[in-house]
Write a structure and sequence with these properties.
single chain; about 240 residues; mainly alpha; 10 helices; about 60% helix
Length: about 240
C-alpha cells in the first residue's frame, strides 16, 4: 500500500492537494449515495413499499439479519426520505472529506452497529428501515473526530455541529415516539467508536541526531522545499491543524 493510500485510511496527515482531491471525491460519493437512495425510493413507492417490508430489519428475526445492509437505503414514505436527505448529505460529506476509503469503513461500522442494536433490542414485530442510523453515526464521528486527530479545524467543525444539532440527540433516547431511537443510538455509538478506530495514526517523534533534540521528522518530510511556491501555504495549513 503506497503512502497516499495510507493517508486515506488513517495512517497519517494529508497534504492540501490530497485533501482537496478527497473532498471532491467525498462530494461525488455522497451525491451518488443520495441518488441511489432516491432511486430505491422510486422503486419502493412503485411497488407499494414492498422493498421496505421485505428488506427491513425485524428484531429477533434471523431471516432479516442480513437486511442490516439494505435497510439504510429504504424508507417508508416521501416525508421520511425528505427529512433524511439533507442531514445525510451534510454529515456524510463532513465525515468523508478527509478520506473516502476511511469513510467507507466508517459507514460499514455504523450500519452494523445501528442494525444490530435494532435487531437485538427493538421490542415488538417492528420493521425498521431508513438512513437515520447513518446520519447519527456521521454526526457523532464529525463531532469528536478533531479531538482524536488533533486537527484544529475539525475540532471547530465538531463544536459548531454539536452546538447546532444537539437537538438531534433527543430522538436517540428511550421513549421517543414514532422513530427507531435504538437505531439512532446504535448509529451514534458506531460513529463515536469509528472516530477512534479511524483516527490519524501519526508517527511518534524520533531522535534528531544532528541537533540533539527530538522532532516530528515524518511530519517534516511532508513539507515542501523552502523554494517551493507552495511552502507558505503548507506552513499556514499546518499552523491551522489542517496538515
Amino acid at each position: 500500500m503506497g503512502g497516499a493510500e495510507r493517508d486515506r485510511v488513517g495512517a497519517g496527515p494529508m497534504g492540501p492537494e490530497q485533501m482537496i482531491a478527497e473532498a471532491r471525491k467525498a462530494f461525488f460519493v455522497m451525491f451518488g449515495f443520495l441518488a441511489l437512495v432516491w432511486l430505491a425510493q422510486l422503486a419502493n413507492f412503485a411497488d407499494h413499499y414492498a422493498l421496505s417490508r421485505d428488506y427491513g430489519v425485524v428484531s429477533g428475526d434471523i431471516g432479516t439479519l442480513p437486511n442490516i445492509l439494505t435497510a439504510p437505503f429504504l424508507h417508508w414514505n416521501w416525508a421520511h426520505i425528505e427529512s433524511n436527505s439533507g442531514p445525510l448529505f451534510v454529515f456524510g460529506f463532513l465525515a468523508a472529506y478527509r478520506g473516502v476509503v476511511r469513510f467507507l469503513g466508517l459507514s460499514l461500522l455504523i450500519v452494523v452497529t445501528s442494525g444490530l442494536t435494532v435487531w437485538f433490542l427493538e421490542q415488538g414485530n417492528v420493521d425498521t428501515v431508513g438512513a437515520s442510523g447513518l446520519i447519527f453515526g456521521y454526526f457523532g464521528y464529525v463531532v469528536v473526530r478533531g479531538l482524536f486527530d488533533r486537527h484544529l479545524i475539525d475540532t471547530l467543525i465538531g463544536v459548531v455541529m454539536a452546538a447546532s444539532f444537539a437537538y438531534m440527540l433527543t430522538v436517540a433516547v428511550p421513549g421517543t415516539p414514532g422513530v427507531s431511537w435504538l437505531g439512532h443510538l446504535g448509529g451514534l455509538i458506531g460513529g463515536l467508536v469509528g472516530a477512534w478506530l479511524f483516527r490519524d495514526r501519526r508517527p511518534r517523534p524520533v531522535k534528531d541526531t544532528h541537533s540533539g533534540g527530538t522532532g516530528p521528522t515524518a511530519r517534516a518530510a511532508l513539507q515542501p522545499r523552502p523554494d517551493n511556491p507552495r511552502a507558505d501555504l503548507h506552513k499556514e495549513l499546518g499552523d491551522l491543524g489542517l496538515l
